[in-house]
Amino acid sequence: MHPVSVSGDEVKKQATSAARSASGASSPLTSTPLTPRGAKTRASLVKSARALFEKNGYLPTSVAEITERASVAHGTFYTYFDSKEDIFAVVADELQSDFQAMLGAEPELPPGSSISERVERTNRAYLRAYEQLARTVAVLEQVSTFNARLAEIRRTSRRFWLQRNTEAIARWKQHGIIDPEIIPEYAASMLGSMIDRSAYVWIVLGEPYEFDDAVRQLTRVYCNALRIDCHYDA
User: Fold this and answer.
1) Tens digit of pLDDT for each residue in 93-117?
2) DSSP tag of 184
3) For residue 55, what are the contacts with CB-CB under 8 A and spacing of at least 6?
């Protein structure tokens, strides 16, 4: 889900929170903190699982392949995870954390920048992050169609961005910047879906696109939909 006008600091705070769940600070099977060695083993399993999921997809990847790649005994896997689904859930959390960190790292705009410039900044950061994370995104999109638990992770990710989009659009409505008939929740969902799905079609499915043109067109369509002045026309 695409975030509109979220500052780098705000995104980084959320990234820190999301990263904590994927950092190996504790095992999902116990509330007892892991030893440094245990944390290292768990992180190796997650790294190996992510690489295999990206290469082969979710269904073909087995626990045996994950442990072999991580160079640990098969039974060691179950010290940290109940199942392949469990470890993929951690990979999905890690993906969300990576997305947020990349968006937060995008250079901030100078004070006084227009709404359309902030939308453009976010679109550029989102597409750039999507390009780097496309293989993991593709697997999450796949498994969310047949696994209820992992579908909920996908929905949770969407809700994170949807909330922020809604808050931004609601502020613009409150200040009389956009059509008063616009319902922020619907506008945020529709416009965020446009950007998210466009990224998926271009980057995962391979439909041709040119990066800078894509950013500009997404920004223009977004602003036109809300009747926001676009800095391209200044």
Assistant:
1) 999 899 989 988 999 999 999 999 9
2) H
3) 135
Q: Hey, what are 131's tokens?
A: 């390009």
Alpha helices (H) along 81-182: 84-105, 115-143, 148-174
Q: Is 149 helix (H, G, I), strand (E, B) or coil?
A: helix
Going 116 to 13 to 2 to 179, the CA torsion angle's sign is negative
Report the predicted TM-score, pTM, of the whole model to 2 decimal places.
0.81
Can you tell me the distance from the alpha carbon of 144 to that of 156, in angstroms, rounded to the nearest whole number? 12
Return d(Cα 176, Cα 63) in angstroms, integer. Answer: 55
Start-to-end CA distance of the chain, whole Å, equals 29
Number of residues that make up the chain: 234
CB atoms within 10 A of CB 183: 12
CA 103 – CA 139 distance, rounded (Å): 21
